[in-house]
Write a sequence for this structure.
């Protein structure tokens, strides 16, 4: 339920869905720059706070994409499912 990409400068962005028994299905991102310590990502940043949760046996998170904009090689584009009430799952560009 996550996607990751690296730009031409070596910066990395990681987007993913988050949820728990006390948190609705939401979206968060993190990243790192080449000067960060090896093996460590920066702090998590909430990108969207969901307002509901998907129940049952539906497949959550099948649609997650982190991409680099070909126009500049540095802009990250992220798309991930989120859940709102009422209505169900939707796509949210980031």
């Amino acid at each position: 339920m996550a996607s990751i990409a690296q730009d031409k400068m070596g910066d990395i962005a990681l987007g993913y869905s988050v949820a728990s028994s006390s948190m609705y299905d939401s979206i968060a991102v993190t990243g790192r720059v080449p000067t960060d310590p090896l093996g460590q990502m920066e702090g998590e940043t909430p990108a969207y706070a969901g307002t509901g949760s998907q129940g049952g046996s539906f497949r959550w998170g099948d649609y997650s994409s982190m991409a680099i904009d070909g126009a500049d090689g540095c802009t990250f584009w992220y798309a991930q499912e989120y859940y709102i009430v009422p209505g169900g799952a939707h796509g949210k560009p980031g």
In short: The mean pLDDT is 85. The chain has one domain: 2-93.
